[in-house]
Amino acid sequence: MTWKLVSLLTVVIGGVLTGLAPLFLFTDFRAEFGVGTILLGLLIGIIVLLSAGVPIGFATGVLGAVVIWLNFGEPGLGLVMVRIFGLINTASFIAIPFFILMASLLERSGIARDIFDALSQLLGRARGGVAVATSLLAVVLAALSGIIGGEIVLLGLVALPQMLRLGYDKHLAIGTICAGGSLGAMIPPSIVMIIYGLITETSITKLFTASIVPGFMLAGSYVAYIIIRTQLNPALAPLPKKFTEDGNEPDKELRGSLLILLLPFLIGVAAAAVTNKLGADKVDQIAAFVFSSAFAILGIIVWLSARQTNKVARGLLPLLLIIDLVLGSIYGGVTSIAEAAVMGVIASLIVIFLRRELEVRTIMESLEQMFRSVGAILWVTFGASVLAGAFTLSGGDKFVSSAILDLNAPPIAIVVVMLLIFFVLGMFLDWIGIVLMTMPVFLPIVLQLGYDPIWFGVLFCVSMQIAFLTPPFGSAAFYLKSVAPPDIDLVTIYRSFGPFIAMQIAVLIALVAFPQISTFLVR
Amino acid sequence: MGPKIRKRHMPSGLLKNMRELMIVPPYGERTTVIDHVVSTFSRFAMLLIMVGAGITLFEIVMRYVFASPTSWVHKSTLWLAAVTYLMSGILVMQRREHIRVTVIYDAVSPTLRLIFDLLGLYVLIVYATLMLVGSADLVWAEFFHAIKTGAILSLPLSATIKPLLLFATVAVAIVAINNHVIDHLNFGRSSHSKRRGDKTQ
């Protein structure tokens, strides 16, 4: 007891004294040791601090501050404040709390469960149908959420019990939920993309556009995998004994719902085609698509509101309207990203209100969840931004990029090595730590090699999809574990990820081989 | 999964309801007065973002419906969001949820874990002190200048957020010491209503 108190006091007083040291002593460390030594010390420091479980934001922040001190002495320490304040003073950052709030509001509403129930009732009669329904719901939720976690927890609560009860293969069910739930960080609006865009100073709208096709490639391959796998091995997904509980005609309803859901899409495509004929550019075509389909959705909601049929369409349409409004405003350039996020929050509140689920307590819970996520994400960003600034100012980025460029390796090999580094780091670190620590080094190299930073951002985002699933620090597994039945342990969960990680790697390879997949929309 | 509509009795008093809503027991099995302050304070700071949403909606409506965009909304939203970023870090520290790598930390013995915790605390205190050493004088000068000239009333971002950043960092360090005292020195009163939080990051 006493020695614990003594050690605490020593640490507190020692910490303050260490922090005050720059006021009293300064030798020109840079002249004495050179950049290489300082960088090596930095690398060792970061490994030691991170493996000791020091929060990433403080470990990077203190190392950044110390490097600044070693390079520029006490006067340079003001840079710490300058870097963090520069981040806070960025307009796009405001979108992060709003996007997280939007997602956590919708998570607390019963809307996802309603959609899942309707979808699985319709698709459940086909083999593997409930898993496909889960994937579809995951894609819709991903377009409403910028982070993983909430989505996986939600799917784990809504879809996992249903699939297990129907006798679906454990691994298939878990893999579907976690891989699908991770799409939240891939399909716009993605917080990963926002942070990447802010750090690398690339257009967030372009990043959002470029990640659409890869995001749907991932989702599509999950669905295809479920269908093929269950066809080959029917034991993985037994058919329910009783097809429908009520006397509805499911086939007719399925066709009706599909038609209704397709209608806004078709109207949007028609509007885009018309504007194309009129000679509008790509952004205007997207805007035309978005707003004509939004009006179509609104019309259908009004038309359907009195009916008891078409539960899927009725559940999905409000969410599609929110997605349409938020992403439409961003792509169409109508509002800034932050304003689009605010519209998403307001629209979610209206949807929840119309569902009669609006309670002050629910709003407070959502706000608290938003607060916790924002604090966790942004304080890492602060610290890592200090480190990145210190690194660049001490010439570290030039040092490393010239060292790599001097290797004269083929450019594509360098990119592949970077992706491998993401993969390895992804096993231990959170995406936010990776983006903030690697990008100041990697991006100048990528630019010097003549690659598109937007394309590299998409590659990074897909790599992070893999990182969410790889042990020992695949965060998706922890989120699912927190809501899964006790007999499902972490080993089972990680074992389920294999095929899905393989598909993600396949998509990543396709993106490396054919960059056009992501970039053709932004050219 | 949201709670279904429950029939409630008429509130006996709005004030009591508000009190129940805004003052909740802090996270943790044992808590001190610092935990209560952080918890309650955060409860109010959370509302700022709703204000931001409200005024941004006002701006969008003014711009597109009435074609008269405002000049103050963007600045104010930025300010409200900035306060949210900074204050949220304090609550996250109180809940011990700052992102970190726990692979090794979870595997080692309690003694080593104590040493790791001390290292983390040391790092945080050095960080906060270095930040103070680097910018406190300039920040205070700017802050007091804004007060003297009365500019503080328009909440200038630079003159208000920079002091707040210093305050938040020091507060995070204090909360970290508080956490350490609770976790390792068995300090604090045990709170019976242990709250379980859902994980999301």
Would you kindly provide a written description of the structure presented here, covering whatever features stand out?
With 523 residues, chain A is mostly helical. Chain A is built from 26 helices and no strands. The termini of chain A are far apart. By secondary structure, chain B is mostly helical. In chain B, 68% of the residues lie in helices and 2% in strands. Chain B has seven helices and two strands; from the N terminus they run H-E-H-H-H-H-H-H-E. Chain B has helices spanning 14-22, 33-45, 47-64, 73-94, 103-107, 110-149, 157-185, and strands at residues 30-31, 189-190. Chain B has a two-stranded antiparallel ribbon with strand order 1-2. In chain B, helix 2 packs antiparallel against helix 4 (73-94), helix 4 (73-94) packs parallel to helix 7 and helix 6 (110-149) runs antiparallel to helix 7. Chain B is globular and about 65 Å long. Chain B starts with 13 loop residues before the first helix and ends in an 11-residue tail after the last strand. Chains A and B meet through helix 1, helix 2, helix 3, helix 4 and helix 5 of A and helix 2, helix 3, helix 4, helix 5 and helix 6 of B.
- Report the total helices of chain A: 26
Q: Roughly how many Å is the radius of gyration of chain A?
A: 25 Å
Give the class of chain A from helix and strand content and strand pairing: mainly alpha
Tell me how many strands of chain A there are: 0
Estimated share of beta-strand residues of chain B? under 5%
Topology:
The complex is a heterodimer of chains A (523) and B (201).
Chain A: H1 2-24, H2 29-51, H3 56-72, H4 78-88, H5 95-108, H6 111-123, H7 129-142, H8 150-158, H9 160-165, H10 170-182, H11 191-200, H12 204-210, H13 212-232, H14 250-277, H15 282-304, H16 311-331, H17 337-354, H18 360-393, H19 396-405, H20 411-428, H21 431-448, H22 453-469, H23 475-481, H24 490-496, H25 498-513, H26 516-519
Chain B: H1 14-22, E1 30-31, H2 33-45, H3 47-64, H4 73-94, H5 103-107, H6 110-149, H7 157-185, E2 189-190
Antiparallel strand pairs in B: 1-2
Helix pairs in contact in B: 2-4, 3-4, 4-7, 6-7
